[in-house]
Amino acid sequence: MTNTPLVNDLIRVCGEAGVRHRRADLLVFEADGSADGSPEKVLPLAICLPTSTEQVAGCVKVARKYGVPVIARGAGTGLSGGAVPLAEGIIISLTRMDRILDVNLAERTALVEPGLINLDLSTHIKADRFFFAPDPSSQKASTIGGNIAENAGGPHCLKYGVTTNHILGVEFVLPNGDVVWLDSNQTGYGGLDLTAAIVGSEGMFGIVTRAKVLLTPIPESISVMLAAFASMDDAAQAVTEIIASGTMPSSLEIMDSLSMQAVEAAYHVGYPTEAAAVLLVEVDGHPLEVAEISAEVEALCRRIGVVQYRQSYDPVEQAGLWLGRKMSLAAMGRLAPNYYLQDAVVPRSQLVKTLDEVARLSNESGLLVSNVFHAGDGNLHPLILFDRRETGAVERVLHLNHDLVVACVELGGTLSGEHGIGSEKRDHMDLIYNESDLRAMAGLKRSFDPDDAFNPGKVLPKGMLCGEVKDLHMQRMAQKYGIVAF
Ligand SMILES: Cc1cc2nc3c(=O)[nH]c(=O)nc-3n(C[C@H](O)[C@H](O)[C@H](O)COP(=O)(O)OP(=O)(O)OC[C@H]3O[C@@H](n4cnc5c(N)ncnc54)[C@H](O)[C@@H]3O)c2cc1C
Q1: Ligand 1, atom 49: nearest CA belongs to which residue?
Q2: What is the domain class of 5-93 according to CATH?
């Protein structure tokens, strides 16, 4: 097979080993963790695997020469279709740029490449008693570049803040191939804070090639508590009351009985599957403070009524309790061949009402929904379980997903807590933003990427970047009811 001129130019930049273009190789890059939610996916033209910033910039310039889109990619664990190509273009995979370039304990910072796996950084600095605080449950696989692009969260972000709070600066390849260094304003005012704009920009503004990240000291003492409740309402009520009491655990996570069943079948961690829900609470800090807050949490949970309560200071036992939570998505195959995961957020005071609504909509649809989520942030993760081989299953799932999103928005919530908008939630953006809001976002995108060459088709509803904005809600209604003009 003869290479296309595009592929030959990319090989000149990255070398033979740094470019994939055979169909079998391309297929792997057609999807991300949200495969079931990305029906629009398109096969990329080539995959570049650069090893330096210069090579990334070179690939971008080649893409511009041929007028094809660029999609940055980390580990491909994204859950909103972010790294899925929607138009024929090149994918720049950053996984070979995975070095820790510098650790400066005096400044509590590290300089890393974007393909570094999240957990590898914490493992590297553990002996010095530091860690990188953003801890998505995918941290064994997802990259820091992907975490930056999605502004990833995780169980411990309740206390420590999400990725944006831990990024001090980035080296960035702009859509015209220029390389810039941008500092954040976290430690003083240094002009416009473009780093803040780049964190969470979902690969639409350019490519992160290096990041200066903040390191956090490992707390002196950690206590993990497991409170099992007879109803999901009780577990959610406990979360609302813990937050209202003014104490600040480092994480507050809920799992329902369905997800515990999956986890127990896969990992046997000892969760009480007979309970309707468990609340996993972690408290960290000075030993005296930890003991005091843990006692307050226990008293509060017991007042609401627990069916089982465990507390552990033992790191091995704690790791076991966390293993089930962190691996819960991987265990879902025990319940159904496919799942569709959504990550809407609701005000924490609305948790009980929202979870009742999730249960009602699940019953109405006849589809099982399992819940495992960052309860302290109000960040739901209803997992709709299904078998895509059943006729009409995908349509029923998308319908239920839509109803769940609308319910969360009506209860004062928003579309995403951490997984981003990508292609999956793009057409729900008008539920929370009006046309002026969306135009402002489109303006920012255009100022970085006037030709819409980077990750086109993501986040902003179709038409936003070429000026043909229509009433999206009306469009959706027209589609739903088969109206051709209105
Ligand atoms: C089991 C499981 C658990 C998860 N748990 C969590 C969780 O607790 N919290 C959470 O927030 N997310 C979670 N996720 C979602 C996902 O892991 C995160 O969104 C993660 O940040 C994606 O990183 P990645 O390296 O896989 O990025 P990818 O999926 O490869 O890409 C994601 C987006 O980032 C862009 N991108 C990637 N690298 C760069 C770069 N260098 N420069 C510019 N743009 C770039 C891509 O274009 C794409 O838009 C989970 C996913 C799975 C499968």
Answers
A1: 82
A2: alpha beta
Report H helices in 178-327: 194-198, 232-244, 257-267, 287-304, 315-326
Contacts of 327 (CB under 8 A, 6+ apart): 137, 263, 266, 267
Q: How is residue 221 written in tokens?
A: 């003492």
Q: Which of 67-81, 187-201, 412-426, 431-445 has the lowest mean pLDDT?
A: 187-201
Which residue has a Cα nearest atom 11 of ligand 1?
152
Q: How far apart are CA 83 and CA 204, in angstroms?
A: 10
Using the mean position of ligand 1's atoms as its centre, give its distance from the Cα of residue 202 in Å. Answer: 9
User: C-alpha dihedral over 381, 156, 350, 262, to 10 degrees?
Assistant: 30
In short, whether 294's Cβ falls inside 6 Å of ligand 1 is no
Return the bridge partners of 345, or none. Answer: 379, 414
Atom of ligand 1 nearest to the CA of 114: 41
Ligand 1 binding pocket includes 72 (Cβ within 6 Å): yes
Q: Where are the domains of the chain?
A: 5-93, 100-217, 221-410, 426-481
With cut-offs at 50, 70 and 90, classify the pLDDT of residue 479. low
Q: Which CATH class is domain 221-410?
A: alpha beta
CA of 146 to the centre of ligand 1 (A): 4
Q: Among 3.30.70.1530, 2.40.30.110, 3.30.465.10, 3.90.220.20, what is the CATH number of 100-217?
A: 3.30.465.10
Work out which ligand 1 atom sits closest to the CA atom of 144.
Answer: 25
| Tokens describing residue 131 | 């860690």
153 touches ligand 1 (CB under 6 Å):
yes
- pTM of the model as a whole: 0.93
Evaluate: CB of 203 within 6 angstroms of ligand 1: yes
How far from the centroid of its chain's Cα atoms is residue 55's Cα? Answer: 27
Q: What one-letter code names the amino acid at 180? A: V
- 190 three-class SS: coil
Residue 376 structure tokens: 């302290």
**If 0-12 CB within 10 Å is exposed, 13-18 middle and 19+ buried, where does residue 461 land?**
buried
